[in-house]
Structure formats: structure tokens, C-alpha cells
Structure to design on (642 residues):
């Protein structure tokens, strides 16, 4: 890979303005921030009369259809791009299958991930931004783009999803200022958040029900365990990436100081992920079990029947209480 | 009750400034908005050297301890108030037991509820405000109060809890502007939201588990039912006011167009609450079952065994699909 030069919002605005044929790339397993950033930019450039295309190796999920109600990926313009822009992509490994061909020639990356691997020729990185959409908004502003309802919906969705609806520790006053600006453009933030945060698939609800039945408390309700069995996963057919919410169940319980999610990985293999509060060091516990990680979040893999695995865990946890 | 005069933010600021002994009232079953409003005002007035007391007929819950870490209700100053201010109280019925004695002589009410019954001598009502804290902030601003971290924490908590962390349809750009201002005062919004939205009691988690086991789908997963039985409630000991989250379970499921929560009310009596999307009229269905309500939210009471009650409901719902 060649040199990567850091650029300012103003330089980025000038680069984009001077290009007529622009290709925008979103990362694989697309989320609200990469799609919101990509489509906000796409609509802005279309509005300026440019020829633009957006690509994502995993396609454009129906879940985010409201961001691109009239978009048909099969009838996008084909052209040799003058400028290739990657949005919210920390590393070329996240391009995935069909967009991998561009990895050596990305002109510009706009991102907020600390882990950005500086793969692009030019990089606009702001690690304080809660979502890449905050940076896209700044660029559009300098370019003099009028933020209409459609663009505002894209930007708000990225902002809301990357902050867990303004809950995560990445939220700054700038995030709320942007939300205020976007709401004034007439977006329906209520419906966006309902769809993004309050809608679960039947499969997800079913797996949650099965997993809740495995919830066990130990040591005066200060330690909690849940099990996600292969059988439950097969029965519901829920894809791995939609299980995040389920793994958080035991941590939400008042008084629980440490929790573990035991995810069966075929037969007698269990992948354990541990979370804890200030008092208990997850990395120390998991190190004793042959794993590692951070003080508040760590993991390990244990082999044995479910009862054997639980016995091993409880023996290690005993000293913590 | 006498005359109620509407007053402006400026008039309220002047009224409060000119009083030296102030009594602040919060409503019974206190929530984040009434407590956040009350304590923000208390701290501001204490800072101005005034003699102030806050009262709430249901006391000050440990759940909101972070709003009043050093507060001891038993050592508050006792005095004959020059000004009695009710915050976030729509009607004197919401005063509850111990503060009921003040109901005929409330000088000022600061509120955002459309249903405000105009019981106070002076009323500052802003029904656009997502929380009463938005109005309190405006008053403190006009009074020239410096918003420190402690006051900002109170105001943010009211704002966040009354908007479901910026999710509900009452959120305006002003709500986000205020959040931005408060975050700049150094509050820990992450910890506040974690405590307010991601922490469930063991009892709540247990009842949720039992209720999820009653979840049933009908008509191609377009109709869902849950049952909250007396037995489950008794086993977990969860108070009624903490069941709100549980009642929302069936509505969160993708594809579900209508849902009912069947709450047992002793023996063969079931209180049904129904929710639906645009297509199905809840009030029409519930009217046929002897109840009523609104198009999206309605209710009725049915008598019979659980199986009989379900059969009645399914017979009525059949025509809707």
C-alpha cells in the first residue's frame, strides 16, 4: 500500500466537488452508519448533477429500505470512477467479496474508527465523531449542499444506530446538535428509532425466550449465566449477527456484578464471553480459564458437557465473591 | 378552586426570585421528570441562598439516588412557604397522601401535560416541551442561574426518561439542543441512561421470563398474545408500575400487526390491553368485546377461564385477518 495523507474537511469538499464520476463504497454487513453515510453522499452528489454509484459487497438490506425507497442497485450507472470514496470502512478487509477489487485504489476514506488502517490515498478521520455521518454532514456543509429530508433521514439513521439511540459513551454535544439540525429538516425520528430499536424478528424473540429459560443466578444473584445452545440456534435459525442483544440479557440485571454468556460451538465446545463491573476483573478470571481480554469484557473457550463447563466456571468465580 | 392565570417564563423567574421561602412539590409515584425538575429547582434556589424544601408523597426512590446523593429528606428546613411550586403535576389528584394538604394553595405550577387541570394560581404550561425539565431550564436561564454538573444531571435525567432516551414522538430539536448544552456541563449521560434504561430488577427479569413463555402467535404471526398471570406476579413480587416494559413485548415483533396483553385480575377476570398498527382498529375490536379506547390502543375486560378468554378474542380477531 502507498502513502496515506490526512486531509481536512475543506480539502475533501474540494476533491469531491472537482470529480464528476464518483464511486461510493460501504462496508460488508452494512449498518446504519455506513449506509446512512453512503446514501447521504450519493443523494448530495446526484443533486449536483454528478454521475454516482454506490456499492456494498453484501447488497442493500430491506431493513434499511426507508433510506433508499426508490433505489434499484441493478440500474445504477456504470463508469470508470474518477474518485473512489470509502465511507465508515476501517480496513480493506471490511470491503468483502464484490468490492474487494477496489482495495488498492481507494482515493478517499471518510471514517471515525480508531482502528483505521490508513489504506486510502487520502484519509479524513475523526475519532471523536460518534458516527461517520457526523463527518459527512460537515463535508456536505462545506460543499454548500442543502440538507433535504431524504439526506437528513440518512444522516440521522447513522447517528442514532451508532450511538444506540444516544445512549453509548461515544455521544457528544455535537451528536445532539446534529440531531437537532436534522429533526428541523422534518425527518420522522420516531419511526426511524422504532424500526431500528424496537422491532425484533420472530426468530430473535423465540431465541430470546429459549435463552431466558437458561438464565441462572449464583452467589446471591451477583453472578448470572445464560446459555445459547446449538439446538436453540438451529430451531430459530437466527443469524449470528442478530444475537448481540441476547448476549446483553444477564448484564441488565440489577445487582449482577459479573455475567457470562455460554455459546455452544458444536458438541462439547463452549465459547464464553464475560462482562463485569468495576469490582471484578474479567480478564483475570478468563486468563485462569485459558482465555483473556479486558477488565470489563473478556472471553475464553471451555471443553466439556454443559454441567462440566458450568462447574469449572463456578469454581473459578467462587473466589471473586 | 379559584382563578388560574397563565404566566410567562419571565414572570415565573420574577416570582421565584422575589420569594425567600419556597416549597417544591413533585407528583406521587415520582419519575425522572418530576424529580429532575424538582431537584434542579431546589439546587438553583439553594445556590441563591433561599430556604427551600422539596416534598413528594411517595418519598424519594433509591433508583434516583444519583440525583440527590447527599439529600436527607428528614433534615429539610421547616417553614411557612411564601411560594408553593408544583413541578410536572397535571392535577392535584397526583399530589397523593402527604402533600394533599397543599392542593388549595399552590401558587405556581410548571408543567408540560396537555391534561393540566389549571388548579394553581399561576400556570406555566408548555405542551410542546418533551419534559417539564425543558421549561425549568428556560426559567433558570432567565433567572441567570449557572447550570452546574449537579443541576445538569437532574435536567438531563428528566429529558431522557420522558423521551425514552430520545425515542418518543415528543422529541423536538429543542430537546436535542438542551441535551447538547447539558452534556457540555460534564454530565455522565452514558451512566444515567444505563441506569435508567438498561437495568432490570431480578423480579422484573423473572416475570419477563415467565411471560415470554406464554407468548403465542396466531394468523401467520400477525397477531400475538401474552399473559401476565396472578401466579407469576405473586411469585416474582413485581409491583404493577414496573410491568410497563413487559406489556410491550408482543408489539416489538416484526410482522405483528396487533397484540394483546392479558393481565389476570384475580380468578377468571382478565384485563385486556390491545395495541395495533395502522391497518387494524383496536377500539373497534375492543368495543365488540365490551370495552373501548383509541384506534392504536384500546382495552376491555373479559370473564372466563384463560382458554375461554383466548377463544373469545380469537373469534373476534379472525375477521381482521
Amino acid at each position: 500500500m502507498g502513502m496515506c495523507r490526512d486531509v481536512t474537511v475543506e480539502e475533501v469538499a474540494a476533491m469531491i466537488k472537482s470529480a464528476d464520476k464518483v464511486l461510493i463504497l460501504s462496508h460488508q454487513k452494512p449498518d446504519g452508519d455506513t449506509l446512512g453515510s453512503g446514501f447521504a453522499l450519493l443523494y448530495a452528489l446526484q443533486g449536483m448533477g454528478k454521475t454516482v454509484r454506490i456499492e456494498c459487497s453484501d447488497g442493500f438490506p430491506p431493513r434499511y429500505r426507508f433510506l433508499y425507497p426508490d433505489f434499484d442497485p441493478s440500474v445504477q450507472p456504470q463508469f470508470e470512477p474518477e474518485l473512489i470514496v470509502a465511507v465508515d470502512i476501517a480496513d480493506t478487509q471490511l470491503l468483502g467479496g464484490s468490492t474487494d477489487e477496489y482495495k488498492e485504489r481507494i482515493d478517499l476514506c471518510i471514517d471515525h474508527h480508531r482502528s483505521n488502517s490508513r489504506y486510502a490515498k487520502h484519509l479524513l478521520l475523526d475519532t471523536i465523531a460518534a458516527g461517520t455521518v457526523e463527518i459527512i454532514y460537515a463535508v456536505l456543509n462545506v460543499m454548500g449542499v442543502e440538507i433535504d429530508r431524504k439526506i437528513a433521514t440518512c444522516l440521522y439513521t447513522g447517528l442514532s444506530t451508532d450511538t444506540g439511540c444516544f445512549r453509548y459513551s461515544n455521544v457528544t454535544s455535537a451528536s445532539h446538535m446534529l440531531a437537532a439540525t436534522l429533526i428541523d429538516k422534518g425527518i420522522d425520528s420516531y419511526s426511524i428509532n422504532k424500526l431500528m430499536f424496537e422491532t425484533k424478528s420472530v426468530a430473535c424473540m423465540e431465541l430470546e425466550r429459549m435463552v431466558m429459560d437458561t438464565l441462572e443466578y449464583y452467589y446471591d444473584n451477583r453472578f448470572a449465566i445464560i446459555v445459547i445452545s446449538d439446538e436453540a440456534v438451529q430451531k430459530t435459525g437466527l443469524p449470528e449477527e442478530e444475537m448481540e442483544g441476547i448476549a446483553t440479557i444477564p448484564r441488565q440485571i440489577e445487582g449482577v456484578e459479573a455475567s457470562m454468556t455460554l455459546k455452544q460451538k458444536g458438541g462439547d465446545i463452549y465459547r464464553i464471553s464475560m462482562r463485569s463491573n468495576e469490582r471484578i476483573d474479567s480478564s483475570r478470571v478468563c486468563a485462569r480459564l485459558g482465555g483473556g481480554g479486558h477488565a470489563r469484557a473478556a472471553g475464553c473457550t471451555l471443553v466439556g458437557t454443559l454441567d462440566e463447563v458450568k462447574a469449572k466456571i463456578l469454581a473459578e468465580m467462587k473466589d471473586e465473591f
